């Protein structure tokens, strides 16, 4: 089994970390840069910063926030929210981001993925998929989980790989914030079909959920927010638990 990554996600609104349930009912969870630095010190493998209202409000992710993060954090971090052009990617990477994440813009203009991968390399292009179970199929949502599409999630994941995405950040909207566990079945279907890494997101509530998503879900990395923000599960304890249960971790404990 390849080494696995633990990735805290910081959802950003007006420079602050926020967290909700099923993408709504947001509450403040602290300063984004300060929290990111703490997670890095605790042994997080990577960080993800998502400006969750950037696309909705039609504004760009704050480059200054990225600069502040880069000054204080020594692990790789991904930035997403409102990225819609090669110029946006260039600005964020130049400000210090290691990777960028796109979602809505990829759906609206799929060829943008090809352009970004060609210019910057697939290794720094993460495409996020917000997905919801509609009973007989999983559907992709855009605009921060507010707008349904007719795109089938599994087919979209395959197209993203073909276009040059380096990683997929798969968030189950049904599981997000519920602490009832990740969407292991869907994650496994996509992970086993693709050769690029899949980051599972949405539903982490206890340490066992991480074990399940790495085994049953075949995920390469697991992302969580509230359980880290509100100190329900310390990252060092989680990594020790996973190590003791036979899950090889990316970084040393």
How many individual helices? 10
Helix content: 25-40%
Determine the strand fraction and express it as a percent band: 25-35%
* Class computed from helices, strands and strand pairing: alpha/beta
* Number of beta strands: 12
What's the CATH H-level homologous superfamily?
Aldolase class I
Strand order of the largest sheet: 1-4-5-6-7-10-11-12
By CATH reckoning, the class would read: Alpha Beta
What is the number of independent domains?
Answer: 1
Globally, the shape reads globular
Question: The CATH topology is what?
Answer: TIM Barrel
- The appropriate CATH architecture is Alpha-Beta Barrel
Low-confidence stretches: none
> What sequence of helices (H) and strands (E) makes up the elements?
EEEHEHEHEHHEEEHEHEHEHH
Radius of gyration: 16 Å
Q: Can you summarize the main beta sheet?
A: 8 strands, parallel, barrel
Descriptive notes:
The chain is α/β, with parallel strands linked by helices and 253 residues long. It has one domain (5-244): Aldolase class I (TIM Barrel). The protein has helices spanning 32-42, 63-72, 86-95, 104-108, 111-120, 153-163, 184-193, 207-215, 226-229, 235-244, and strands at 5-13, 16-21, 24-31, 47-51, 77-80, 99-102, 125-133, 138-142, 147-152, 167-172, 198-201, 221-224. It has an eight-stranded parallel barrel with strand order 1-4-5-6-7-10-11-12, surrounded by six helices. Strand 8 (138-142) and strand 9 (147-152) form a beta hairpin.
């Amino acid at each position: 089994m390849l080494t696995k990554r633990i990735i805290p996600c910081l959802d950003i609104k007006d420079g602050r970390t926020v967290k909700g349930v099923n993408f709504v009912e947001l509450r403040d969870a602290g300063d984004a840069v300060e929290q990111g630095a703490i997670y890095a010190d605790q042994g997080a493998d990577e960080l993800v910063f998502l400006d969750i209202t950037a696309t909705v409000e039609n504004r760009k992710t704050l480059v200054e926030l990225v600069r502040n993060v880069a000054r204080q954090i020594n692990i790789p971090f991904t930035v997403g929210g409102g990225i819609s052009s090669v110029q946006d990617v260039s600005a964020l990477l130049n400000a210090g981001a290691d990777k960028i994440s796109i979602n809505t813009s990829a759906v609206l203009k799929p060829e943008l993925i090809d352009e970004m991968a060609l210019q910057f390399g697939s290794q720094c292009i993460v495409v996020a998929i917000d997905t919801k179970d509609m009973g007989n199929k999983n559907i992709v949502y855009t605009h921060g989980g507010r707008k349904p599409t007719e795109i089938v999630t599994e087919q979209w994941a395959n197209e993203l790989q073909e276009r040059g995405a380096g990683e997929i950040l798969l968030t189950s909207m049904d599981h997000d914030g519920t602490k009832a566990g990740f969407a292991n079945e869907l994650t496994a279907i996509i992970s086993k079909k693709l050769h690029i890494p899949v980051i599972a997101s949405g539903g982490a509530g206890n340490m066992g959920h991480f074990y399940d998503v790495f085994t049953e879900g075949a995920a390469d990395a697991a992302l969580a927010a509230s359980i880290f923000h509100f100190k329900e599960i310390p990252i060092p304890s989680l990594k020790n638990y996973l190590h003791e249960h036979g899950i090889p971790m990316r970084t040393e404990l």
